[in-house]
Amino acid sequence: MYHKEKITEFPKDFLWGGATAANQVEGAWQTNGKGLTTAEVVRKADDRRHGSMGDVNEVTLQEAINDNSDEHYPKRRGVDFYHHYKQDIALFAEMGFKVFRLSIAWSRIFPTGLEEEPNESGLAFYDRVFDELEKHHIEPLVTLSHYEMPIELTKRYNGWLGREVIGAFNHYTEVVFKRYKSRVKYWLTFNEINTSAWGFHETGAIDGELSEQEQLQIRYQAVHHQFIASAIATKQLKSITPNAKIGSMLARMQTYPATANPADVQAAQIEDQKNLFYTDVQSRGEYPEYMNRYFADKGIIINMEADDEAILKQYPVDFISFSYYMTNVTSADGVQDGIGNMSLGGRNPYLKESEWGWQIDPIGLRISLNALWDRYRKPLFVVENGLGAVDELTADYKIHDDYRIDYLRLHLEQMKEAIIDGVNLMGYTMWAPLDIISFSTSEMSKRYGLIYVDQDDDGNGSLKRYKKDSFFWYKKVIETNGQTV
């Protein structure tokens, strides 16, 4: 009789930690030769329920380039991790972090993306960050491209629509792989690569004023170039540091049918396939058959070169990472409630939602973990998950964020259940260990952190760091390897 010992706890080598992005945390946007990026030309949103990531056209782009301030572009100032990294990493270490997910700002290394030689000051900054992580025995998990690329590549090639950007990106990846080969053993290529379907913030291509068909053509062609660049990066890494691991990164949006009507079930299946298409390519090394019909129906033609299919097949990713914040509801009639700036589809009546309209579904995380494990049989890594909320700093500098603790606890409980189900889960980096500039709206009021940063939406404040109640809770979670969840 076959019997395998049942796992009932988080693995002993489970990687607990937190995640950030350079364009939301670093600041110092003009320091030591850094170039302007696509993230730094997106204006702060006027409405927190409607993100501004896609509101970039030729006119607004030029306005942003001409504006030499951070007043309307808060990602330029971040929360000054560039100058506070030692303090911040010490706080992460106090919580017991095993891993810290960060991204390298491509434009710190190659300010326009077109230079032959890298910017030594940019490379040296990340050396200092890695020094500090090593001092505290924290593993870095590095994202190579987290929603930013040098703006010159948008101006010259319309971002990833231009195949020329593959060479520029892989010149950058080769440099950082060689520089940090003894320091980083976990890498990710493109953050939430599937959000390329939403446009500029991920592709760097300006297409907001085009027809839907034209937009889809541009976005899927752009992501094809990213697939190729990711596979080439994997090839480079395996040559430079054979024992290192590289993963894909998906914005996971589990889709439920609105009813038991077979038409709704089928609509949800199609929507879920569109979400998983990206990891299908990066994990399996080939385009899935179901996309052929979608491309044909939408009039999309993916232009490939002779070796593209071979490089995808030969160099798939080692593991699959993903963000998880919400689930979606899909119906055959295509009705969307527009409940939040990152929520798609219809409202789920069984779920609560955040102030930004993001519906909270811890059980959906377990469902997603099982679905991804069954589909790919590769190690999984939850590299983003958290609650954006308005926090109040008390007169004695305390932040009582029981709502965040409850959110994280419920999701960790479902992760544990998935592990008991048999899912191979490497680790968890919650978003984000300290308050940072919001991706979707560029506001500071939407706080995710376990550490409060004294800065308001206009950039006023001391930038002092204060520990929230969730800081001490998460410390206990890590100390007990999840047994206090």
Automatic annotation (TrEMBL):
Active site: 384
GO MF annotation terms: beta-glucosidase activity
Coiled coil: none
Family: Belongs to the glycosyl hydrolase 1 family.
InterPro entries linked: GH, GH_1_N_CS, Glyco_hydro_1, Glyco_hydro_1_AS
Name the UniProt record assigns to this protein: Glycoside hydrolase family 1 protein
Cellular component, GO, one term: cytosol
Keywords tagged on the record: Glycosidase, Hydrolase
GO biological process: carbohydrate catabolic process
